[in-house]
Amino acid sequence: MRRLFVSDCEGPISKNDNAFEVTKNFIPQGDKLFTIISKYDDVRADILKIPGYDAGSTLKLIVPFLKAFDVTERDIEKYSSDNLFLITDSKVSLEYIRKTSNAFIVSTSYEQYIKVLCESLDFPFENTYCTNLSIDKYSITDKEKKGLRKIANELSELPQIIIPSKAKSLDDFSKESQNVIKRLDSIFWQEISNSDISRFFSDVIPIGGYQKGEAIKDVARKLNNSINNVIYFGDSITDLEAFNLVKKSGGLTVSFNGNSYAVKNADVAVLSNSNLVIAIINNLFCNYGTKTTIRLLKDWSIKTLNKVDLNDDLLSLFLNKYKEDLPIVKILTSKNTNLLIEESNRFRRSLRGEAIGSLG
Predict the structure, then answer these.
(1) 178 and 55: one domain?
(2) Same domain, 339 and 261
(3) What is the signed CA dihedral for 12, 128, 1, 222, rounded to 10 degrees?
(4) Does residue 282 contact residue 5 with C-beta atoms inside 8 Å?
(5) Residue 57 host element (H or E)
(6) Domain holding 321: CATH number?
(7) What's the number of CA atoms in the CB half-sphere (13 Å) around residue 265?
(8) What is the pTM assigned to this prediction?
(9) Closest to 3 measured CA to CA, from 302, 317, 279
(10) CA-CA distance, 69 to 71, in Å (whole number)?
(11) pLDDT tens, 308-337?
C-alpha cells in the first residue's frame, strides 16, 4: 500500500504567508493589523484553549477588513500570482514524492493562493484542502465599511501582544497585553459578532487546527488507507492537531523550518533552504516506515544515505547540491528541543523574513 505524503503549504513548500502579505498590501498598516490578530489567534488557541476555536482563525477574523477595503477575489488571485515565492526545489521535490506516494497539501491559506501555487507546481488542486473564500458574494453598506475601517485603524495602533514563554493563562501576561486581548475580545465577539457583518465569520472555515486533522482522516478514508502510513510536514501552530493525530497513529511528523509550536510537537526537526530534503525523508519513509526512518535519521549523514535504499536520481541530485554540508535533520528529544527551537526560529526568520518568520 502506498504511503501518504501530507504537507502544509506555507513553510514546507513556499516562503509566503499569503494572508499576511495580502492584508499588508491592501490595507493601510495591514501588517500591524494582521500581526496583532495573529497573536490574538495564538492566545485563544494555545494559551486559553477556547472550546471550538481553531488555530488559523486569523484568516476568518481578517475577512471583514479585507471587504471593507474593497479587496476582491480577483485581487487576491492576482496578488498571489505576482508574489509567489517557492522554497527552492519545490517542484522537483514534489515530482519525486508523487512517484512513490499519494501526495496532498493541507493548508490554512485561501484557495485563490493555493490554485496559483498548484498551477506553478503542476500539482493537482483536487489533492488540496484549503480555506474557501468567496468574498465577492458579500455586500457591505457604507456605514459598515466606515466602521470596519475605523476598527482596523484602531487595531493597527494597539501595542502588540507579547506572549510569555511559559504562559498558561491571561494572568501570566502583562497588564498592557491583557488590555489589548480584552479589547480584541470586545471587537470580535461583541461588536462584530452582534452585527450583520458576523456573516463573514460563519461562512469562512479556515483549514487549521482541528480541520487539518479532519483533512488527514478524509485522505486516509478516501484512499482506504491508514494514518500510520502518513508522513506529515508542517511548520506552525496550525499543524498541531495534524502532528498529534499522525504521531498518535504511528505515522511520522516533521517540522520544516518550524516555529516553537511545530518543533516541540514533531518527531523530526529540519532546517533547510531547499525542500529536496523533504523528498529524501519521504523516500526513506516509503521504504522503511516510521521506526526505521527515525533510526536512520538519528545517524543523518552522507554515509547513511549512501547505504540505504533511496531513488538513485534523487540521491544524486541531493548530494550534488549539498556536497559535504547536509541540511540539519534532528530527532527531537527532551534534551535538544529548546536548542532546536532557537535554531529553527532563527533560520525561519532568515529564510522568510522577520515579519513572516515571527508569526505563529
Answers:
(1) yes
(2) yes
(3) 150
(4) yes
(5) none
(6) 3.40.50.1000
(7) 22
(8) 0.96
(9) 279
(10) 6
(11) 999 999 999 999 999 878 999 999 999 999
